[in-house]
């Protein structure tokens, strides 16, 4: 006999435990039966749906008695509540020696009636009929003999049968395909229902205040762990006849390095870990496949630039001793030396690999690619929603968080149901909470911007110091190094490294702040919680990772004045100029360092740290115990899962997506690096969750949540940033203006001829005698020097003012941005309109499933009405 929640309360599915235990009742404690791979109680019949772990206080002499007894009372009350609610428990002491000898493992089983009740509460969809709509043959089926090599072994992982499904109802059990009650609810469904009950079972009642939920007990140390069981060891098949060995299959066909080329078994991932994990790996795999095309085009663009670096006119003029060798450039800082243009020969050639006409084509291609990526992902996501029964996963189906329910002390009228319901705050209180959250987020964003300013000051100070040192010291031995490492390059690389370290430190600090703010706001459902935290963390990460790139791309070197009248920051440091090769090469360096460093750091965190911890844990267990270890104890020795689940995985990939799209015009190799990283990331994440962590509690999810609009926002912004990078950061527009307007030759019309003289036209002249601080000892016979700008020469009535060429270039840049944005946005609109979000075949199947559900409900209602009418007819006859 058991008591469940009052399921059909009129206050909008507010669940409250009833018939709580007056006296503690204890779960039976048994000894381990010696079967290490068993997934059942000692009787071999009742399946283990969840495991709770605690430390026996009676064996602890060093701890305060009061705290131990309080935890023990809470645990006993909690377990008694579970048993009163229909759960069956069985406790088994640890078989290991120190440090595990004090642990008690409480195994939780859900009987059939409890499963049926909570399957109805959680609207779990289950099969009602085989899918009778024939699938259309693939147009690529003739390549199946080749493509099958890239799919998981069908002998190990067979294709799932397709069913029409409907939300489960106990009263209509005969309409569902129930062949075996033990297999009707999958282990992931059972674990999900068990966790739902554990999250709402009370552990303490004081007057009208009820405290409940396994989360609070874990935080308070009452329990050391709570997790569903893996079904076997990842590298050894279970010998139990009823074990599906899904973990072993996932490792062999998905997580093992030898399977890196295989397509992911998404249905098995979803079946084992739940829809939320499945949709993440589906999105990551789809993103990686789409990156393949972008990587091929980006690599082709880079190879084109590499091929023309020695033949392009502007790089040859820079390196030519008769052209670049005779052009004396003005000092770029106070106290710096004069330098000749050909000293930047290597930088100029490197720049040609990233700043060429192919880059313009690639930037436009990426704007179209990102639209196709999002549209095709929506279609793929719609197919997964139908296949995984999440099409109607609506907000009302998601239950409130236990933390939210515990704080519900106010009443309000629900505008939808018209009934009174309990809420944790008034309208004014909610406004105060949200305002505090917004203010805190803005403060931290300003802190990031302050760090960017600090990095800028560092750049100026180090560049000045480095340049003065090169001038005052005899560095003849370092001349070969100085040929490749200029003061600007050394400053840029060190500043990028320092910026990366600051990013990592601020990430750790802000993460805790963001979680505290979101907890304080008290969102209603877990989806609301994750969406709120996602928005906060992404805004912070966006500014944290991209602010330095935006500075280099759009601010650095844009307000430097001219040699006779430079611009000073704070009246002390002369404003920073771009590298002699341009700011684009610095932006490329910044992106390469941040993307590479971030990938290396994340892999260390995700792989090395849990692997070392598990290695130490296994070593301790082996050194202290010679007994057979049961399945639940093997899982306890693995790492616990993060409370935020997949949040960090999504965040890592979305930040990478930003680097691939926002600044791709400056770094065509970004998709290549992202592709290589993602190919590793998929297998690393698979290996990590399959071998190093406890089994994740399965969760329902319809899509990728708040990350979808964030990706759409990035794609819109990417069009603007890439157009502005080409216009204002690269030399593409000035070259095109010179090519079409200012360089018309009567003999020949090829680029080799018409681009001659471009370097000379892009440099202005300055009189050395007018320099505020000059060095005549370096070049005593030179009266003028050159600098990058379009200004009138000395002696002109408007000397050192911008000339007409400057305004032509500005007009061309603005026209380029306007035209490119309108063309790309129009193309994106057409593609979004032409490509439907839901495939036609999926729409047909959804309609068919709804029809069958309505037919079943109609027939059932008719039977119920008939049963009620028959007694009435019999009474009339009598």
UniProtKB/TrEMBL annotation:
Major location category of this protein: membrane
Transmembrane segment boundaries: 286-307, 357-377, 441-468, 488-510, 533-554, 653-676, 710-730, 805-826
Keywords: Cell membrane, Glycoprotein, Membrane, Transmembrane, Transmembrane helix
Statement: the UniProt record of this protein carries the keyword Mitochondrion: no
Domain Anoctamin transmembrane, chain residue ranges per copy: 269-849
Keyword Cytoplasm: no
Pfam families named among the record's database cross-references: Anoct_dimer, Anoctamin
BP term (GO), one: calcium activated phosphatidylcholine scrambling
Localization, UniProt: Cell membrane; Membrane
Cellular component terms per the entry's GO annotation: plasma membrane
Domain Anoctamin dimerisation: 40-266
Family: Belongs to the anoctamin family.
Protein known as: Anoctamin
Lineage of producing organism: Eukaryota, Metazoa, Chordata, Craniata, Vertebrata
């Amino acid at each position: 006999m058991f008591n469940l929640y009052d399921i059909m309360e009129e206050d909008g599915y507010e669940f409250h435990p009833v018939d709580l235990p007056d006296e503690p009742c204890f779960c039976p404690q048994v000894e381990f039966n010696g079967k290490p791979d068993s997934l059942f109680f000692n009787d071999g019949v009742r399946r283990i749906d969840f495991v709770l772990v605690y430390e026996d206080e009676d064996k602890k002499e060093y701890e305060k008695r009061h705290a131990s007894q309080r935890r023990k009372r809470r645990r006993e009350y909690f377990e008694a509540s579970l048993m009163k609610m229909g759960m069956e428990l069985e406790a088994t002491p640890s078989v290991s020696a120190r440090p595990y000898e004090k642990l008690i493992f409480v195994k939780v089983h859900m009987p059939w009636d409890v499963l049926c009740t909570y399957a109805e509460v959680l609207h779990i969809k289950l099969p009602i009929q085989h899918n009778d709509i024939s699938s259309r043959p693939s147009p690529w089926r003739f390549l199946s003999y080749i493509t099958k090599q890239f799919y998981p072994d069908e002998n190990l992982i067979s294709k799932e049968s397709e069913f029409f499904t409907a939300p489960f109802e106990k009263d209509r059990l005969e309409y569902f395909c129930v062949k075996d009650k033990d297999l009707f609810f999958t282990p992931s469904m059972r674990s999900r229902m068990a966790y739902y009950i554990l999250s709402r079972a009370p552990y303490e009642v004081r007057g009208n205040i009820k405290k409940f939920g396994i989360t609070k007990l874990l935080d308070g140390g009452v329990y050391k762990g709570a997790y569903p069981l893996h079904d076997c060891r990842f590298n050894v098949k279970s010998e139990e006849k009823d074990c599906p060995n899904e973990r072993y299959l996932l490792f062999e066909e998905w997580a093992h390095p030898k399977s890196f080329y295989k397509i992911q078994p998404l249905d098995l991932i979803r079946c084992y870990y739940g829809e939320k994990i499945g949709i993440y790996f589906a999105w990551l795999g789809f993103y990686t496949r789409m990156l393949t095309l972008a990587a091929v085009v980006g690599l082709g663009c880079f190879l084109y630039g590499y091929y023309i670096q020695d033949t392009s006119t502007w790089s040859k003029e820079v390196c030519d001793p008769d052209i670049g060798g005779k052009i004396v450039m003005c000092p770029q800082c106070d106290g710096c030396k004069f330098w000749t243009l050909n000293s930047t020969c290597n930088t100029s050639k490197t720049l040609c690999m990233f700043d060429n006409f192919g880059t313009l084509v690639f930037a436009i291609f990426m704007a179209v690619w990102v639209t196709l990526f999002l549209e095709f992902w929506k279609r793929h996501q719609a197919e997964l929603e139908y296949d995984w029964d999440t099409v109607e996963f609506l907000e009302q189906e998601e239950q409130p968080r236990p933390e939210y329910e515990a704080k519900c002390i106010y009443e309000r009228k629900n505008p939808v149901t018209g009934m009174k319901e309990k809420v944790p705050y008034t309208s004014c209180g909610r406004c105060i909470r949200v305002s505090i959250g917004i203010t805190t987020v803005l403060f931290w964003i300003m802190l990031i911007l302050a760090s960017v300013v600090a990095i800028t000051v560092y750049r100026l100070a180090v560049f000045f110091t480095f340049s003065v040192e090169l001038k005052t010291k005899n560095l003849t031995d370092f001349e070969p190094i100085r040929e490749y490492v200029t003061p600007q390059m050394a400053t840029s690389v060190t500043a990028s490294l320092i910026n990366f370290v600051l990013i990592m430190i601020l990430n750790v600090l802000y993460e805790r702040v963001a979680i505290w703010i979101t907890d304080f706001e008290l969102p209603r459902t877990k989806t609301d919680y994750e969406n709120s935290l996602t928005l906060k963390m992404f805004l912070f990460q966006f500014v944290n990772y991209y602010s330095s790139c935006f500075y280099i791309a759009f601010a650095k070197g844009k307000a430097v004045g001219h040699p006779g009248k430079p611009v000073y920051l704070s009246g002390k440091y002369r404003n920073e100029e771009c590298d002699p090769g341009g700011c684009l090469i610095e932006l490329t360096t910044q992106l390469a360092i941040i993307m590479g460093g971030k990938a290396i750091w994340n892999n260390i965190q995700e792989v090395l740290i849990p692997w070392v911890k598990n290695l130490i844990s296994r070593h301790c267990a082996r050194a202290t115990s010679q007994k057979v270890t049961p399945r639940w104890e093997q899982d306890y020795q693995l790492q616990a899962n993060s409370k935020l689940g997949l949040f960090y995985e999504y965040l890592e990939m979305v930040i990478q997506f930003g680097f691939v799209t926002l600044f791709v015009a400056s770094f065509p190799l970004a998709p290549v690096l992202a592709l290589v990283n993602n190919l590793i990331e998929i297998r690393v994440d698979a290996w990590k969750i399959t071998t190093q962590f406890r089994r994740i509690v399965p969760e329902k999810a319809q899509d990728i949540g708040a990350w979808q609009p964030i990706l759409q926002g990035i794609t819109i912004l990417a069009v603007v940033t890439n157009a502005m990078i080409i216009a204002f950061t690269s030399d593409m527009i000035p070259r095109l203006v010179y090519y079409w307007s200012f360089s018309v030759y009567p003999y020949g019309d090829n680029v080799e001829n018409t681009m001659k003289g471009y370097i000379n036209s892009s440099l202005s002249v300055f009189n050395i005698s007018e320099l505020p601080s000059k060095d005549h000892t370096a070049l005593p016979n030179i009266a003028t020097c050159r600098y990058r700008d379009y200004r009138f020469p000395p002696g002109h009535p408007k000397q050192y003012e911008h000339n007409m060429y400057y305004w032509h270039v500005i007009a061309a840049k603005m026209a380029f941005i306007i035209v490119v944005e309108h063309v790309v946005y129009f193309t994106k609109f057409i593609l979004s309109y032409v490509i439907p979000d839901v495939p036609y075949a999926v729409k047909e199947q959804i309609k068919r499933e709804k029809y069958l559900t309505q037919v079943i409900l109609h027939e059932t209602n008719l039977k119920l009405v008939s049963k009620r009418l028959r007694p009435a007819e019999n009474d009339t006859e009598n």
